[in-house]
Design brief:
This is NAD(P)/FAD-dependent oxidoreductase. Keywords: Monooxygenase, Oxidoreductase. The protein is α+β, with helices and mostly antiparallel strands. It has 2 domains: 253 residues, FAD/NAD(P)-binding domain, CATH 3.50.50; 104 residues, D-Amino Acid Oxidase, Chain A, domain 2. It has 12 helices and 23 strands. The protein is globular. The C terminus is likely disordered.
């Protein structure tokens, strides 16, 4: 039986509002505390919401809000920089369509959904400390204020303060050797891709793009950069200069539309997203009355296509565990349910990064072997990832210390 009635959620990005909505459905009152004084409109590039992410959103009645701001991705087409077709991976049948969304739109949709349902989101509340006792938890903020509840949920992202508070030795994000850029285009100058996202393994960088029926669209580039670079450092270089670098990078990939897209990009519209990073494993997900969710606990590279979807899944699963079990058992059960899955996806994203940053010999081998490997990427083989569905109505119980009633695969 639950012993949780109230929750503090630290972080108002993607995982935070979803966790608040899921906890509300579980009968737990949650307030979100965001460090930044304002909202995060205009922050972040393009990302995908996978079918499993949409299934989790549906549990908290938020899938429709996200569908409205997304563009269907019916397939992913993989090409080499020479224009050679490597593979095509279609959307799994009988599952929600994968969506292409811009992070700023996703953030605004989830933020609005939470506020409209009465979730309180307080800005300018930067966490600096936590006091954990037998009877509750107190959050201490930089402005001198405090807040109290039964539990505290750290949904504060890749560089989580909560993670370091519960484990000062917690690992730091790992640089993938890539930095990311992107832009939306009102007029791409290209024909519609028919709902397909094209992924181009260029000679010197990776390009992704999708064009809508009206000619608008968007692109992203993953540029190899061996030395670690923060987002702030990347943004010290002007957008004009970065566009020059990207055009030079794709100068030899004349059988791709990279140069057309880059030439049509206004420097004012360029998104310098910054380094692509991940967290291979986080040893400590919870301590006392404090628990991590989303990128604070498990952060795959954006190459996985699953970062937002996994964060949404974990937020819902955490709430379900807290609905049915005392917080200590709930936290332990939540981790056992989630850790194997998320770490498998983190590892897959890291392998994709290595393909994107391959050298001359690696590129030849990749282009030769990828068509063979992709023959095995059937919908049935991918069901463990895309068909994951949390059964909210199933009660979470423990048997010999292990949680049961986890998910359905469709």
């Amino acid at each position: 039986m639950t012993d949780t009635r109230t929750a503090l959620i630290i972080g108002g990005g993607i995982a935070g509002p979803v966790a608040a909505l899921a906890l509300r459905r579980a009968g737990i009152d949650a307030t979100v505390y965001e460090a930044h004084a304002g909202t995060a409109d205009g922050v972040g590039g393009a990302l995908s919401i996978a079918p499993n992410g949409r299934n989790a959103l549906a549990v908290v009645d938020a899938d429709e809000a996200v569908r409205r701001i997304g563009v269907p991705m019916t397939a992913m087409v993989l090409q080499s920089g020479t224009g050679r077709h490597l593979a095509e991976l279609g959307s799994p049948p009988d599952l929600p369509e994968m969506l292409l969304v811009w992070r700023t739109d996703l953030y605004r949709a989830l933020y609005t959904e939470a506020v409209d349902r009465g979730i309180r989101i307080e800005h300018g509340r930067r966490l600096v400390g936590v006091t954990d006792t037998d009877t509750g938890v107190t959050a201490h903020f930089a402005d001198g204020t405090t807040a109290e509840a039964d539990i505290l949920v750290g949904a504060d992202g890749l560089r989580s303060t909560v993670r370091t508070l519960i484990d000062p030795a917690a690992p730091q994000p790992r640089h993938s050797g890539l930095i990311s850029f992107g832009a939306r285009l009102a007029d791409s100058g290209l024909p519609s891709t028919g709902g397909r996202m094209f992924m181009v393994f260029g000679r010197r960088a990776f390009l992704g793009y999708q064009v809508l029926d009206d000619g608008s669209g968007g692109w992203f580039v993953n540029l190899p950069h061996r030395e670690p670079m923060t987002a702030g450092q990347a943004r010290q270089t002007s957008a004009v200069r970065w566009l020059e670098v990207l055009r030079e990078t794709f100068a030899d990939d004349d059988r791709t539309p990279a140069l057309t897209l880059l030439r049509r990009t206004d420097p004012a519209e360029l998104l310098v997203v910054g380094p692509m990073e991940d967290l291979p494993t986080v040893p400590t997900w919870h301590r006392g009355r404090v628990v991590l969710v989303g990128d604070a606990a498990h952060a795959p590279s954006s190459s996985s296509g699953q970062g937002a979807s996994l964060a949404i899944e974990s937020a819902v699963e955490l709430a379900r565990c807290l609905r049915d079990l005392p917080h200590r058992e709930a936290f332990a059960g939540y981790e056992r349910l989630r850790r194997p899955r998320v770490e498998k996806i983190v590892a897959a994203g890291a392998r994709t990064n290595r393909n994107k940053a391959a050298g001359p010999v690696g590129r030849v081998l990749r282009d030769l072997l990828m068509p063979l490997f992709m023959r095995f990427a059937t919908p049935e083989r991918m069901s463990w990832q895309f068909g994951y569905r949390i059964d909210w109505e199933a009660r979470v119980t423990t048997a010999h210390g292990l949680p049961t009633s986890e998910v359905r695969l469709t």
